[in-house]
Specification:
The chain is α/β, with parallel strands linked by helices. The protein folds into two domains: about 90 residues, Chemotaxis Receptor Methyltransferase Cher, domain 1 (Orthogonal Bundle); about 190 residues, Vaccinia Virus protein VP39 (Rossmann fold, 3-Layer(aba) Sandwich). Helices cover about 45% and strands about 15% of the residues. The protein contains eleven helices and ten strands. Helix 7 links the parallel strand 1 and strand 2. The longest helix has 20 residues. It is globular.
């Protein structure tokens, strides 16, 4: 039976195409993605889900999304479920995206942290959705511009992402020269090195201050210490309101006293965290003295 014939005889197709894809299939996929990663997929994302996952059906030799849902929901579909999540996750990133955050980090946050580090103190930053690494390396270059000896001190940037493929790519620290446009010239000259043709790699000092780990933001967080600054940008927009509120609350709980949280340009802190995270700049918040520690 052709897909077209199956669509006529069975439930109505949500998206017309090569594979049978019904509203029931969409609801199952949306429920799994929400349960696994907190991402909310509204009904109007049906075409996006179809287009991104159709290639997975072809690779697996499946005939319908019903078969695909059965696979990823089963015990033997764990790896494919991760691939599904990666396919549906938007990994838009670039060096020094929303540059005002890095200006604030450099001018308002790092001078105090640099003095602490030079006195033997501990400094920790967190890039909470690092994608392919441009955000934490932007933070690293900003850090090194203020504290060039950071790699020799108790200073570290934790960089995490739910997608192990992105974490592996970020850890490599190699980028096409076409991706470097956002890096200020002085930082690019000092903290990147020629690699293969048309590519650069991050300098050893920048790589040394960043530790990459896989982490699900709606799962357990194993970090014991608190952070002086957290970048969690353009992630919460994919969550429903309740999940966003929980995320802001948990992030506030991970900040050291006076710590700073940077969020995405279209995001706003909500829920209980809004009472203890005070705006100090554009989409920039500082943990206030009202926070119960």
């Amino acid at each position: 039976m052709t897909p077209a014939a199956a669509q006529k005889e069975g439930p109505a197709a949500m998206v017309e195409g090569e594979f049978v894809f019904t509203e029931a299939d969409f609801r199952k996929i949306a429920a799994m993605v929400h349960g696994d990663a907190g991402i909310a997929l509204p009904q109007d994302k049906g075409t996006l889900v179809y287009s991104r996952l159709a290639k997975r059906l072809r690779a697996l030799g499946l005939k319908s999304f019903k078969d695909y849902c059965a696979l990823v929901a089963g015990a033997g579909g764990v790896d494919e479920r991760q691939r599904m999540l990666a396919a549906l996750t938007t990994n838009v990133t670039r060096f020094f995206r929303e540059p005002h955050h890095f200006d604030h980090l450099r001018d308002q946050v790092l001078p105090t942290l640099a003095r602490r580090a030079r006195s033997g103190g501990r400094v920790r930053l967190w890039s909470a959705a690092c994608s392919s690494g441009q955000e934490p390396y932007s933070a690293a270059m900003t850090l090194l511009s203020v504290l060039p000896e950071a790699a020799d001190l108790d200073v570290k940037i934790l960089a995490t992402d739910i997608d192990p493929n992105m974490v592996a790519e970020a850890r490599e620290g190699v980028y096409a020269t076409t991706l470097l446009a956002g890096i200020p010239d002085d930082l690019r000259r000092r903290w990147t090195l020629p690699a293969d043709a048309g590519c650069v790699r991050m300098a050893d000092e920048a790589r040394a201050v960043v530790a990459f780990r896989e982490l699900n933001l709606i799962g357990d967080w194993p970090m014991a210490g608190r952070f002086d600054a957290i970048l969690c940008r353009n992630v919460a927009i994919y969550f429903d309101d309740a999940t966003q509120s929980r995320l802001w609350d948990r992030l506030a709980g991970q900040l050291a006293p006076g710590g700073v949280l940077y969020i995405g340009h279209s995001e706003r802190v909500s829920g209980p965290a809004a009472q203890i995270l005070e705006p100090v700049g554009v989409t920039t918040y500082r943990l206030s003295g009202k926070a119960a520690r």
